Amino acid sequence: MYLRIETELYLKRLIVGGFEKVYEVGRIFRNEGMDTRHNPEFTTIELYQAYADYHDIMDLVEELYVYVTQKVCGTLKIQYQGKEIDMSSPWARMTMAEAVKKYSGIDFDAWQSDEQAREDCLAHGVHVEKDAVKGECLEACFDEFVEPNLIQPTFIMDYPVAISPLAKRKKDNPELTERFEAFACCFELCNAFSELNDPIDQRARFERQALLKRAQGGHADIDEDFIAALEYGMPPTGGLGFGVDRLVMLLTDSASIRDVLLFPTMKPLDKPDAPRAAQVTQKPAAQVEPAEKIDFSKVQIEPLFEEFVDFDTFSKSDFRAVKVKACEAVPKSKKLLKFVLDDGTGTDRVILSGIHDYYEPEMLVGKTCIAIVNLPPRKMMGIDSCGMLISALHQEEGEERLNLLMVDDRIPAGAKLY
Questions:
Q1: CA 281 to chain centre
Q2: pTM given for the model
Q3: Shortest CA distance to 7 belongs to which of 41, 50, 46?
Q4: What does the pLDDT read at residue 287?
Q5: For residue 230, how many C-alpha atoms fall within 13 Å in the half-sphere facing its CB?
Q6: How far is CA 317 from the centre of its chain?
Q7: Domain assignment present for 65
Q8: Residues pairing with 192 in the sheet
Q9: Is residue 280 part of a domain?
Q10: How many domains does the chain have?
Q11: b/e string for 115-137 if b means 16 or more Cβ within 10 A?
């Protein structure tokens, strides 16, 4: 038995079986980070309509959201977190490439190779993986420059094949797919596409996905039953999936997904430390367990810098103790965590750090860390990162290991390091 991560492939089997319109309100489970817009357990509605394409589904989405907004709120002009959102038709429509060019000046159509795309991203301060292809680079630019600007309802269309494994290719440009997402209030409302019904193309995409996941040390299987269903024949189909919880967030002006879930996933309450501290104090010194012995024989460190830095230059770096007030995964980023920090000034400081491979957000809340606080703000995934948290990095048996530098919680926020 498994907890399901989607209802999609089973509903498509019904389309293959002759049902022309199917839908399900489904509970979904994903082992992903928590933030104000993501919860590991959530509710979706997925629907599929034979002999429809993504333009038909786009019209359906617009009609659906307009109807529900009017019915629930009594108006199509609603407030969300201090901004007026006009849900009335028609909604703006742009391709992903058009949106990226509009908000950043980056021209997807001018990229002649994956290498050129990666270089262009680097020149614009956008992080991408060293083996990222053009489609993945376009998505990274979209996340960085476009999504923070999508306040009014907007359809973003024609996503790259590299990030759309279940969508049909566009006939006039096989690098792109007939896929769209709807956005409002700077977050995604739904995801839809003309469904891929070519079993040969689908197998090739599944195999590429599995290969990439295995290369990262993950487990990946190809759904042979679904491939077999496509081989029997699936008619041209339009499909849609949207999160019910996010729709409720929008219509109720709720800042966090946890506000609209009955039993959201939460970090455990911390138990009082006082009784434990008392027990430690009363324990005779002779009974204190010896510290764990750590084997450093397999550790490799980077060579020390040979070039000296003069004291005046070094002293300009402002190292401070900071308290982690909140920590969450950055949406659509595999590595970045967003920290909200108390630096002793009374104003929250936001720092992004690419350490999600090593820590889950809930592990770090309440910890006392060290940060450089006088670096200029650096925009990452559309968020200003104001400083840098200090970590210790080394190699061990060929693998990179990282430890975020955490200090005694008795050190107050804002304490300066000398």
A1: 44
A2: 0.67
A3: 46
A4: 57
A5: 17
A6: 31
A7: yes
A8: 180, 240
A9: no
A10: 2
A11: eebbebbeeeebebeeebbbbbb
Show the domain range for 317. 297-407
Distance CA 198, CA 132 (A): 25
Residues 65 and 187 in one domain: yes
- And the tokens for 356? 């999600």
In a domain, 160, yes or no: yes
The pLDDT score that the predictor gives to residue 357 is: 86
Helix axes 114-123, 134-141, angle to 10 degrees: 20
- The answer to whether 160 and 175 are in contact (CB under 8 A) is yes
Beta-ladder partners of 43: 27
Judge if 61 and 129 occupy the same domain: yes
pLDDT at 283: 47
Residues 123-180: tens digit of each pLDDT: 999 999 889 999 999 999 999 999 999 999 999 999 999 999 999 999 999 999 999 9
78 contacts 72 by C-beta, under 8 angstroms: no
CATH number of the domain residue 360 falls in = 2.40.50.140
Instruction: Give the pLDDT confidence score for residue 279 in this predicted structure.
Output: 46
Cβ distance 132 to 140 under 8 Å? yes
Q: Name the domain boundary from 231, 259, 287.
A: 259
**What stretches in the chain show pLDDT beneath 70?**
267-294
Query: Tens digits of per-residue pLDDT, 288-346?
Result: 556 566 677 778 887 887 788 777 777 788 999 999 999 998 887 878 999 999 999 99
Cα-Cα-Cα-Cα dihedral of 381, 384, 387, 391, to 10°? Answer: -20
